[in-house]
Fold these 4 entries.
Entry 1:
Amino acid sequence: MKTAVMKANRTTLTDEQLEKFGEELDAIRRRVLADLGEEDAAYIRKVVKRRQQFEIAGRALFYLPPAWPLAVASLSISKILDNMEIGHNVMHGQYDWMGDPALNSRMYDWDTACPGEQWKYSHNYIHHTYTNILGKDRDIGYGILRMDQDQPWKPMYLGNPVYALLLMLAFEWGVALHDLEVENIVAGTRKMADNAPLYPGLIRKIRNQTLKDYVLFPALTGPLFPLTLAGNATANIVRNIWAFNIIFCGHFPAGVSTFSQEECEDETRGHWYYRQLLGSANITGGRLLHLMSGNLSHQIEHHLFPDLPARRYPEIAVEVQEICRRYGLQYNAGPLGKQLLSVAGKICKMALPDRGCKDGVETVTKDALAA
């Protein structure tokens, strides 16, 4: 009889309950897929148009030095929309059903330093398949942060708050380098040669992004080159900070569960849904927050249904919450400020060595687990 470590405060379901739980969520997915149509297509096309308008306005305003703050704000909004509501969701295949090449997951690439093809492997496949499984989901800490008590503490983690700050400011570059698995190269479990297939695409994307934001567009403003360069850099940093905070608030606030590889062996569809639910958190707020976050403010629904158009998540959330109430499962949601403070507290707490027994963790037999 195998044993596994399981959080003591995690509600468990029987095999029969897990099966029914999975069937209910599958039914939601089938219904939404059958209902996709012109409203969904019109929505994403409208967002694309607004993004373009904000970019054009931002680029134009750089020719008027007194309007520099407005230029930066407009360009920042454009980059956030491109990254969150358009790029992230389009590359998940949420709009492939439209048959529009401009919104096809195989053809779209976003306005960040990470090549779309590489991101789709590390995010769509690795992260969404192995969400919050320690040792398999590299998004837990991104290779540099300690974000869970079951990650063994090392002296290097004393720098957790500093690493998090640097990652936040340079988030697009952290995402771009994520697939290189530098931490595994340092640990000796991966060789530099293993990254050879990644270099051409990565170098090409970094070159193109650098030329666009830091050479071409600043040069077009002539003597205003330094101001435009600074404005483009500031817009990228604003986008980085926003994306980092939204993503971390969806994955790492208090109450979010991690899972051992052992307890996810021979995982059923119902247990996969169960893991996605307990390994995520939502941010409550209004329509503007949901739009600017790419609806990743509904991270729970995104992890449950990553290929459904994100604009559907608010309506789905009502049903998911009702299902959670019936099964006695936690639905982790809170306002942005609360989730941010929770994440910041965890980053600082995980920087320090553990004291005594791990709170809220008990050893149970695998037979007692839900799957």
Note: Strands lie at 3-7, 282-284, 333-335, 361-365.
Entry 2:
Amino acid sequence: METDVLGPPYERHTIELADDDEGAVIATLVRRRASRPTTRAVLYVHGFVDYFFQTHLADFFAELGWDFYALDLRKYGRSLLPHQTPNFARSLTDYYPELDEAARIIRDQDGHDRLLVAGHSTGGLITSLWSHSRQGSGIVDGLFLNSPFFDFNLPWLVKRPIMAATIAVNRRTPYRAIPQSNLGLYGQSLHAEHHGEWTYDLAWKPVLGFPVTAGWLSAIRRGQRRLRAGLSIDAPILVACSSRTFRGKEWNDDVRISDSVLDVEHIVRWAPGLGPRVSIARFDGGMHDLTLSGRDVRAEVFRELGRWVDAYLRPVGTPEIEVPPAPEERTAHPSPSM
């Protein structure tokens, strides 16, 4: 580990990965220790046009007594190399090697026996599929999905036949940029130079986003189709999203109290198919990244997350709740003779 760009107490470790057709590939694992030794850890995975900068999220978990880790995936943020196409992937399984290595470091090298995986947006889609593929291995103890990218926020005609045709036409040119409506409104709602309250590296998270490539679009579409077919994640899951979707194309203040990227009804629709233990929480006034919402909303998000973590991810060795016997299992006591 070396000191991260965020400065102490943040450290980072570079994960060397196999080269791809663009050359060398790395991922970056960031760590922020809790004040006292702990065997519980959280692994955070960002969304598209994103990287880890949400130090208040790390502070929240550190104060709960969890060590916090964040993974900048290949070709994102700290892991984006000069020769690479930003955020590009041919398949969402491309990210599994860095997720596997991050989990190995957290569990085997750093000695944690509880792992909560937290995924935002595209990170929520990726970590859902990865958790499903690793079921039965005991790697993931819980999954927190913050506005996961389960479906495109587009009319049916665009996201089904037109998107399928676009992908087919560009099958041989995966790096080709696809025209799109940019994420400018969402970027404006976040950054302090516009309408937001946050500062971050605009080279890694530009206000107008990065171009969407044909290869990435195809990878997301295949991943979403697999998820919507139903998963069997063997860990408790908390799916969280806003209570409303922003539909406009011009700026107004509703952007700051809505999900301006995804349709929240899609999230709620597909969440139950993740596995047998799914909780859904919706937050009025929540933004796409719920942890970047207004102060009162994000405080509510953290309260709910804290309650859920306390209920489902208690430290190893915590006594199980004693369940009283069912009425039919109780021994009937004979009535006293008269």
Note: The mean pLDDT is 94.
Entry 3:
Amino acid sequence: MSDVAVILINYNSSHHTISCVESIFSKTNTKLHFEIIITDNCSETEDFNTLKKFVNKQSNPKLKLYRSPTNTGFGGGNMHGYQYTNAPYVAFVNNDTLFLNDCLSILKKYLETDDAIGVVGGQAFKENGDFMISLDHFASPMREILGRSFLEFINPKKYPKRKKAYLKPITVNFVPGSFMMLRRKDFESVGGFDRQIFLYYEETDLCLRLKKINKSAVLVPEAKFTHLHGASTGKSIPIKKELKISLLYIMKKHYGNWGYFSVFAFLLIKYGMSSIIKSKNRPLFSLILKGAPMSESLQYKQSLKEV
């Protein structure tokens, strides 16, 4: 049995997935028993076949590929892959990342030091080697309305600086979903990823639920990786809409009606005013005006394919 299961999602970006897998194999200590589970989230046939050809050519029992009949998003895609492993540790890794050192061994070793730690993440870098923010504060009414910098100013202990390179492990609100590792038992104790969320805010939701059972999140800067941020999703109006849908869902789930309506009112004013000048913001204003309902999510616009 593997000690660590790495779960990747591929969606029409097989070139990134292949590079990610190669980096994991090249940087991970051969003494660590690990496996890589790839969920193809219903990519186009050509992209899936490219990935399938690569996996078959490797002929490595540590590398497995499964295809979902529909695109289930980040949480659903990871849960699809999760069902094929029973490793005691699981790492969820974006396919647009490249390991720079033995991240799996480093993070697993740190998790083993304290059962109160629920999730750990490494330090990300941009493609050119520049520092990348690798921690964040929980999505909350205060964060959305007052801003991250204000929270860091008034309470630096609770809200450590995001734009700072740390040399030692530090407890944070949450680590980005681009690379996070957990114990299987902790992941399952909070129910895994919320499949209602199609894209974005999955990690803040997961870490909020872990916090409720007294499990902390820790950034471990010794583990280093490159993150080609946004390479697998890109930017578009539908993606921006999904951000708002997920945000308001999180507000209501974790902060109740007052949290939802305070952020809803803030966004309504913000995008109502900006849409007067910027026409590109009008679709977002229209969405928020309707309350950014889940029925508008991309998850309800996916089609089934044969696998």
Note: Strands lie at 4-10, 34-40, 63-67, 89-93, 97-99, 117-125, 170-172, 179-183, 216-227.
Entry 4:
Amino acid sequence: MKDEYDLIIVGAGPIGLACAIEAKKNKLSYLIIEKGALTNSLYNYPLYMTFFSTAERLEIGGIPFNCIAPKPGRQEALEYYRNIQKYFDFNIHLYEEVLNISKNEVSQFRVQTNKFKYKSKNVIIATGFYDIPNMLNIQGEDLPKVHHYYKEAHPYSFQDVVVVGANNSAIDAALECYRKGANVTMVIRGEGFTDNLKYWVRPDIENRIAEGSVKAYFNSNLKYIDENSVTIQTPKEDITLKNDTVLAMTGYQPNFSFLTNAGIILSKDELKTPTYNPENMETNVSGLYLAGVVCGGMRTNIWFIENSRAHAKQIMQHIISKKELS
């Protein structure tokens, strides 16, 4: 097995694959390492999720993304990126987790996984943000009825369901569960929904709340979770409701420990923004790059597939320029 490369890419999401395409174009030896399935985050999205972006904005490598509907869904995206893998035949290791990235005295990276050790001149971290949920940090959050990931509505049919959150994932879960027969209550910390709510979903959830089909408590927080109930802190009083399931759709965050262990400096504020040069995506560690959503730190809503595809070319241009100078 070849264990030394020009480039190792950590993460086989759409942006990691885009980086591999650029590496192939520039005839660099490379390896993609992914701890789960191909496009693992997309695989773990809700079954019937619809993307905000249109199909052409999810394309990579100049390969058309053919889609009948204006907005593709999860299944179509998985099919597209599987076809990308078939077409480019990437050098990729799935179900192998990168544990540590370090740099030795001769400016060579050592990448330790749960299976092997590798050497590389450059490393791209394109790990996204979907693996670590933002916790509520309240009593009862560890109960089996509390879920930070949502797949589909059927298991919650005819149940008393509380959905925590005001973003797209929370709204999708609330509407799908309601339509499968659940008694849905939403708990929302702010005065309303997030500004980046899918435009075709906003009137749906607002109308369902207005007619009373979905209950919603704004400016409120989930205070306690018990075996058969939840307590909600509202502006007026604490309310206890009968409850079977809590869907805590409170968002996710990158693996900051993984970044800092690799030597990347994070901002000292609550955003924890990684240090990188926006012109070439290189971090404060020479030869170590970031690509995709992971660049935003806690601001996981500023980078998407469509606006971070460009990272791949930026990085590769920088790597090639360094190679030409050496």
Note: Helices lie at 14-25, 40-43, 74-88, 168-179, 202-210, 256-261, 305-308, 310-325.
